[in-house]
C-alpha cells in the first residue's frame, strides 16, 4: 500500500511541500541538515502521530507556526484509494482524519499506514531496555492479530488498577481478586498471541539474517514476563508481599522481552555496531515479510535514514536486495546521490528527490 501523494507543512526546516513518491524505491539525498530526515519524520508522524527524533513537539513544529500538518493519499492493495491526515499542535493536541472522518485513536493511523524505521539509532533495539523490544514485538502482533489491541487495553486497565491498590499500603488480598482475574486472563491471551507470532517470525528472521551476515551462533528467544513453568496467578500469589512493598506488579506481559544471544551472552555485548545494525535490519525486514504474507490491504513502508551509516558497500547492497524483494514502498536518505543509487541493481527503477535548505525537488536518476 504505497503513499501516492504526501503533503507536509511546518515540519522542522521543510518548506511546504507536496511530492508524488514512487510505489517502490524513493531515494532522498542532500547535504547534512538540508531536511532529508525531516521528510522521513513527517511520514512517521503521519503513521504514528509522533516523531522518532524527539519526544517533544516543540522542536518538530516550525517556530512561527502553532501546529504542523501531514497529509497523504494512499493506494490499498485492493486498488481502493484512501486519504489520511494529522495535525499536531505545540499544545500536544492532535486531529486525525481518515477518508474525511475524524478519528480519535492513533492506533487507526498505525493500522492504516504500517511503518518500519531503520536509522543510526536502530542498534538500541538490541542494547536498549526491554520496553523497546516489547514495542517491536507488539508492532508485529498488532498488525496480524485483530484481537490484540482490545486485549492489550484490558491488560493495561487491570494492571493499572492492581498497582493503584498496591500503592495504598496494607490491603486485603481479596480487594485485588477482581482485577487479578482480569489481569491473568488478558495476560494469558497476550502471551498466546506473542508466542504464535514469534513462532512465525523466527524462521523468517533467520533466513533474512543469513542473507545479510553470517552469525550462526545467534539465537532469538522470548521471555514472557513470568516463570514459564508456573501459572501467572500462582506467581502473583507468591510475590504479593514483595509487590506491596514495591507498589507495583513485578510479573506479567509488561515485563516480557526478546532475547538475542550468542553462546549464552547478550548479543549487544558481543557484536560490533555494524553487526548490531544488520541484526536489527533483519528483525525489521522479517516483520515486513510476515505482514506481506498475511495478505492484508496494506504492506509495510520502510523508512531508512542514512543508509551508508556503519554499513560497507557489500552490506548496503545486500540490505537493498532484501528491501527490493519485499516489493514494498521504501524511502531512503543519504548525502551522496550516486552512493545511494549504486546500492541497487542497475535495472531497479529509482525515484530520486534532492533536498536543499528545506526545498524538495524530484530529479533524474544518476545511474547510467
From TrEMBL:
Keyword DNA repair carried by entry: yes
Keywords carried by this UniProt record: ATP-binding, Cytoplasm, DNA damage, DNA repair, DNA replication, DNA-binding, Nucleotide-binding, SOS response
Pfam families assigned: SMC_N
Location(s) in or outside the cell: Cytoplasm
NCBIfam families: recf (TIGR00611)
Name by which UniProt lists this protein: DNA replication and repair protein RecF
Family under the similarity heading: Belongs to the RecF family.
Described function: The RecF protein is involved in DNA metabolism; it is required for DNA replication and normal SOS inducibility. RecF binds preferentially to single-stranded, linear DNA. It also seems to bind ATP.
Domain of life (superkingdom): Bacteria
Record carries keyword Mitochondrion: no
Amino acid at each position: 500500500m504505497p503513499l501516492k501523494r504526501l503533503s507536509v507543512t511546518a515540519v522542522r526546516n521543510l518548506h511546504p511541500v507536496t511530492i508524488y513518491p514512487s510505489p517502490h524505491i524513493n531515494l532522498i539525498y542532500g547535504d547534512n541538515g538540508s531536511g532529508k530526515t525531516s521528510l522521513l519524520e513527517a511520514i512517521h508522524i503521519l503513521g504514528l502521530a509522533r516523531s522518532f527524533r524527539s519526544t517533544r513537539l516543540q522542536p518538530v513544529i516550525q517556530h512561527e507556526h502553532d501546529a504542523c500538518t501531514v497529509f497523504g493519499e494512499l493506494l490499498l492493495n485492493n486498488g481502493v484509494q484512501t486519504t489520511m491526515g494529522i495535525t499536531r499542535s505545540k499544545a500536544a493536541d492532535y486531529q486525525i482524519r481518515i477518508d474525511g472522518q475524524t478519528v480519535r485513536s492513533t492506533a487507526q493511523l498505525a493500522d492504516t499506514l504500517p511503518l518500519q524505521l531503520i536509522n543510526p539509532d536502530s542498534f538500541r533495539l538490541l542494547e536498549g531496555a526491554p520496553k523497546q523490544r516489547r514495542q517491536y514485538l507488539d508492532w508485529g502482533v498488532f498488525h496480524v492479530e485483530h484481537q490484540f489491541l482490545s486485549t492489550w487495553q484490558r491488560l493495561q486497565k487491570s494492571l493499572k488498577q492492581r498497582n493503584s491498590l498496591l500503592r495504598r499500603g496494607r490491603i486485603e488480598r481479596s480487594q485485588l481478586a477482581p482485577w487479578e482475574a482480569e489481569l491473568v486472563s488478558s495476560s494469558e491471551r497476550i502471551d498466546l498471541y506473542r508466542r504464535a507470532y514469534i513462532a512465525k517470525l523466527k524462521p523468517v528472521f533467520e533466513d533474512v539474517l543469513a542473507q545479510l551476515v553470517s552469525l550462526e551462533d545467534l539465537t532469538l528467544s522470548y521471555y514472557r514476563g513470568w516463570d514459564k513453568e508456573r501459572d501467572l496467578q500462582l506467581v502473583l500469589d507468591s510475590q504479593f508481599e514483595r509487590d506491596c512493598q514495591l507498589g507495583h506488579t513485578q510479573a506479567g506481559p509488561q515485563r516480557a522481552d526478546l532475547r538475542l544471544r550468542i553462546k549464552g551472552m547478550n548479543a549487544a555485548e558481543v557484536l560490533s555496531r555494524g553487526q548490531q545494525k544488520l541484526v536489527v535490519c533483519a528483525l525489521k525486514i522479517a516483520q515486513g515479510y510476515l505482514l506481506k504474507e498475511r495478505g492484508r490491504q496494506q504492506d509495510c513502508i520502510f523508512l531508512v535514514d542514512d543508509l551508508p551509516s556503519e554499513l560497507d558497500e557489500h552490506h548496503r547492497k545486500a540490505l537493498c536486495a532484501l528491501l527490493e524483494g519485499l516489493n514494498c514502498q521504501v524511502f531512503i536518505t543519504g548525502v551522496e546521490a550516486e552512493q545511494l543509487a549504486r546500492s541497487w541493481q542497475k535495472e531497479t527503477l529509482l525515484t530520486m528527490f534532492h533536498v536543499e535548505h528545506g526545498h524538495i525537488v524530484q530529479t533524474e536518476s544518476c545511474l547510467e
